[in-house]
Design goal:
Blueprint lengths: L12 H12 L4 H8 L3 H22 L6 E9 L20 E8 L4 E5 L5 H11 L5 E4 L16 E3 L16 H16 L7 H11 L4 H14 L3
Parallel strand pairs: 1-4, 4-5
Antiparallel strand pairs: 1-2, 2-3
């Protein structure tokens, strides 16, 4: 039995594997509790452990990106904030939480919660996470100005402000934008994510583009290595 599963666990390995299966199907805890006939607090306990293991795995497995990478920012949060009158702005200038993302084409996603989307913040992440030999695709946001001067001489852009979403020849950021859409749809199932936002974000990285069968196999291997 993996160290991830305490020796004094009240559930059998069979039931824990069933919880893993429901988790990988993205069944919310309240519904999993009904399906399993197990207290919701127990389901929440295991779901949280799975997310912590996935979080550690995503950080451990990340390697500096080569090849083709798409970069973009996204904003998460409620449409309204208590005490603030009117709807929140969308996109840049919003009061929502900004997140920076990098998608390696035909590979994984890396996300990072950021305080803002200034050039100082985003370019520091790019330097640390993307090799200068990589090809980078972005939109026209000014924080990406100067990447060529930093050594990223293969930087191609689309101008969304002019309703330009692809220049052909692979110049687009459709992949990372699809990831943002996928993540926001997932979060909507939880009525937004107010707690453990960073865990859910890394979980979305891990889930993106994988089948349920793959997720189950990977998660079982992840928790066998987890020591948290």
């Amino acid at each position: 039995m993996p160290e991830f599963i305490p020796k004094n666990a009240k559930l059998s390995t069979f039931k824990i594997k069933k919880i893993i299966s429901l988790f990988c199907l993205d069944i919310i805890a309240s519904k999993a509790s009904l399906l399993m006939g197990i207290n919701r607090n127990t389901i929440n306990y295991w779901y949280h452990r799975f997310r912590r293991a996935i979080y550690a795995h995503q950080h451990r497995e990340f390697k500096k990106m080569l090849g083709e990478a798409e970069i973009d920012e996204c904003y998460f949060g409620a449409r309204r904030v208590r005490g603030y009158h009117g709807k929140l702005k969308r996109g840049r200038g919003t009061r929502k939480q900004p997140v920076f993302g990098i998608l390696k084409r035909n590979g994984h996603v890396y996300t990072e919660i950021v305080p803002n989307c200034t050039s100082e913040v985003l370019q520091a992440i790019i330097q640390g996470r993307i090799d200068t030999k990589a090809t980078i695709y972005s939109d026209g946001w000014r924080s990406y100005d100067g990447l060529v001067d930093m050594g990223y001489d293969k930087h191609f852009r689309v101008n969304h402000g002019d309703n330009e979403f692809s220049k052909g020849n692979g110049i687009h950021i459709n992949g990372i934008e699809n990831f943002w859409s996928f993540t926001k749809r997932r979060f909507a199932k939880f009525n937004g994510v107010k707690k453990n936002f960073e865990l859910h974000l890394k979980e979305s990285e891990w889930r993106y583009g994988k089948t349920n069968v793959t997720l189950e196999k990977e998660l079982w291997n992840i928790i066998k290595r987890y020591r948290g």
